[in-house]
Design a protein that fits this description.
Blueprint: H1 2-43, E1 50-51, E2 57-78, E3 83-91, E4 96-105, E5 108-115, E6 122-129, E7 133-155, E8 158-159, E9 164-186, H2 195-198, E10 203-204, E11 208-223, H3 230-235, E12 239-257, E13 263-286, E14 288-289, E15 302-303, E16 308-309, E17 316-317, E18 330-339, E19 344-356, E20 359-374, E21 377-393
Parallel strand pairs: 14-17
Antiparallel strand pairs: 1-10, 2-3, 2-4, 2-21, 3-7, 4-5, 6-7, 7-8, 7-9, 9-11, 11-12, 12-13, 13-18, 13-19, 15-16, 19-20, 20-21
């Protein structure tokens, strides 16, 4: 009996010992991986210019404001009367304010933010940086009815009358969506770091700059295709929605200025050229068009069955639409895809960071401008953000 007890105790001891050895082995492997990543991070930089902190973990509290401004411009020429009309719709949703946190190891991490602004749409972002690379992702989707409409008429090249400008509410919301993915390569990664100013994974000790090679993918949509907005769609030759997919390549320059220990100021500018610019336009076939008024109103009533006016014409000038009439109709939606010429876009960034002990504070700002054209239509999207962050190294 005693022998069995001794054997059982021995087996239990061996089992516990094996579990303990297994646990130690897992922890050892984790520490080996951590040491490998730390050594790799330090080996890729010049320590006299860039310091890789011994404490790799960071917890950051962030407050961010993101703004978007969309300008939709269109023009129409009337050769018979030597007239021209230019008009513009501007949409500017509320600035999207958010507060959140970022937790990560070295240049990799996870972030979460809570929106503080109502009716500002949805906004998502992600970023990752290393000694010689950086990746950023942004998604913004919103709807708005608030708009500003401006127009001007020209005759024989001279302005005809006073320009018109007013703020108003669209009959139906306009949906705007933008996706922005940016990646860059740092040529002088041993002495210059974008991360020092934007996520503080390293600390810039001496001033340095570098050429940067960048690539971006941008896609967006501008959709106001509800028939309630028919009046404005007719102004745009029936256009109801525009979708763009754009790939850009560029070479820029970034510089880190270190006026005193722990403080770094970064400025970066990168013009890019679109090497792929696909534009898809959706159009409705309306029973009105933008043109001068006919001398005689002989159109009669609109026939919904034949989709023709009483005089046999399928559309008539919008200038003949009488106030209070509700006879704007549209046919099937058609789409047309085109590949436009090269476009020049701009990426500007500014970052400031200050490090002391195991704490740091940062201020970052970024501005992007995207342009796409289709015939006499031009849309500008201005996308910018400003962010303040406070963090601690662990």
């Amino acid at each position: 009996m005693k022998g069995r007890i001794i054997i059982c105790c021995l087996l239990c001891t061996l089992k516990i010992s094996a579990q303990s050895d297994s646990t130690v082995s897992i922890m050892d492997r984790f520490h080996q991986l951590q040491q490998y990543l730390d050594n790799k991070a330090k080996s890729k930089v010049d320590p006299s210019y860039i310091e890789v902190p011994d404490k790799p973990w960071r917890v950051i509290l962030r407050y961010k404001e993101n703004g978007v401004d969309v300008d939709y411009k269109h023009s129409a020429d009337f050769p018979d009367t030597h007239e021209r009309i230019e008009w513009q719709l501007c949409f500017e949703p509320p600035v999207a304010s958010s507060i959140g946190f970022w937790v990560g190891y070295r240049g990799l991490g996870f972030s979460f933010a809570k929106s503080l602004t109502k009716n500002a749409g949805r906004y998502y972002s992600f970023s990752s940086t290393g000694a010689k690379y950086g990746i950023n992702f942004r998604l913004r989707r919103f709807q708005t009815k608030d708009a500003n409409f401006s127009a001007a008429a020209y005759k024989d090249g001279q302005m005809d009358g006073e320009p018109y400008d007013t703020a108003f509410s669209m009959p139906s919301p306009v949906w705007i969506r933008s996706v922005y993915v940016n990646g860059y390569y740092v040529f002088n990664g041993r002495r210059y770091s974008q991360a020092a100013a934007y996520n503080q994974s390293v600390i810039q000790r001496r001033s340095a700059g570098s050429l940067l090679l960048g690539a971006t993918w941008y896609q967006s949509s501008f959709d106001y295709g509800d028939i309630a907005n028919g009046f404005f769609m007719i102004f745009g030759d029936g256009t109801s929605c525009i979708k763009v997919h754009q790939a850009n390549l560029g070479i820029g320059y970034g510089y880190n200025w270190v006026p005193l220990r722990g403080l770094v100021v970064n400025a970066m500018a990168m013009p890019t050229i679109s090497v792929y610019n696909r534009v898809k336009v959706y159009n409705y076939d309306f029973n009105y068009y933008l043109g001068p008024e006919d001398p005689v109103d002989d159109y009669g009533e609109w026939d919904k069955e034949t989709k023709l006016w009483a005089n046999g014409k399928k559309d008539k000038p919008l200038t003949m639409l009488k106030q209070g009439d509700d006879d704007i109709y549209y046919g099937d939606e058609a789409s047309e895809t085109s590949y436009s010429a090269l476009q020049l876009n701009l990426d500007l960034r500014l970052g400031i960071a200050y490090n002391w002990s195991d704490y740091f504070i940062g201020l970052q700002a970024q501005y992007n401008n995207f342009i796409y054209k289709k015939d006499q239509t031009k849309i500008n999207i201005f996308d910018a953000y400003a962010r303040i962050a406070f963090g601690v190294r662990l």
